[in-house]
Write the structure tokens for this entry.
Amino acid sequence: MSIIRKFKLDYDWKEFVRELDELFPLDIYEEHIEYPNPLGIFYHNITEEYFPQHLREAIERSIGYPIKKKGWMWDWRCQTTELLEHVDTLKAAHHTGISDWDKVVFEDEPSKFGRPPLTVNIAMENDAHLYVYNNEACEYEHCIYGPGDIVVFNNNTQKHGVFVLNEPDVIPRRALNCYLDLDELFDTQHEFWKQPTENVPWPIITTKLIARKDKNNKFEASQKVPLQTEYSFNDMAYLDTPEAYPMFERQADIIIEKQCKGIVDMGCRHGPVIEILHAKGYTDFQYLGIDTSKEPIELAQEKWKDYHNIEFRRGSWEDADVLHVDFDVDQVIWSGVLLYRPDDHYEFFDKITRDTYNSPNAIIQEPQLEQRHWKAGLELNTIADKMKQYQTAYKKFTEYHYDLEIFAGRRLVVDVTL
Ligand SMILES: C[S@@+](CC[C@H](N)C(=O)[O-])C[C@H]1O[C@@H](n2cnc3c(N)ncnc32)[C@H](O)[C@@H]1O
């Protein structure tokens, strides 16, 4: 069972925008500084009597259910890049007190006080990413939606958040909220929830929101992707999906093509590449995987314990003892790890690949600077656009470009011949 459903708006969304723009011009929108948007948010709540009925009907037609007649929250022109994760209970969502509007939405029937209705969000001109915690499955569901899409999600006690994808400055952040409040749809086993929503594999990134003012004295938010030395297995599970597979398969294919026999994998997690090599029948090699993260290393040690040619070692690439091997190395894998060293990635790569291992080959995998599945304002140390030195220093530098349906799916894989 899913808790998110996605529909197409049964109306020309550009016309929808035009009609609403005419009725509700920009200057009526007010800034609200409130949880869950600490940077402030502009919205204007339109009440039932002012909302064009034919547009309401278009939404109902698209979902197949009547929307709540009282207390619509029409966040038209909502100017925000992010709604932080929150639960829609009166207590949790409205720290600053209960407004009259809250009362209408939440207190429709006194007996149901506090039951938030199901949210219906109609995206007009933004691409956004919604994530909702499924309390029953104990995992997050994700959904990316864009112009003319409607998402309905069960937010009754579920934590959820939304953020704008990519360019917050050029995409008008318009979204329209209204609600479903039907007893039958609160049943998580209802037919309505059976259809799975497409889910772009996405990690849970706990970032620190840094608020700063831009040149126009407006607040903008930026968030640094934390690069950790300790991850749980699930933190990176988005990389173990079929959607991410091609960039690891390419690494395996390079190894097979070059018939590499001595492989060192820097920051290896659980070594997804050796699984692919085995699946392709390529098993005659020595392998050392190094990673500081305990859980993936322990899981890999258990999985490959009967293979004497495969070793997983917990430790840092900074430590010479950890790097030591007794076999000749002819391939060093640097998959998603050089970004840990934005200032000296080349020197570090060269020192280990050439000086420590004297390896004739290396594979580099890095996220590209420009991303499609990305969160606006998120900052990542990518080095994919700073690889000139590699191109001039080594014999061959063959690039493979990917645009995968995962978080930061634009990836570069390079086959380096030293
Ligand atoms: C972005 S992940 C990439 C994992 C894997 N290579 C892949 O492509 O799926 C980076 C990995 O580097 C590991 N790591 C970070 N610092 C490290 C260090 N100093 N020594 C070894 N591993 C490290 C992290 O634990 C993490 O598993």
Notes: The first helix runs from residue 13 to 23. The mean pLDDT is 87.
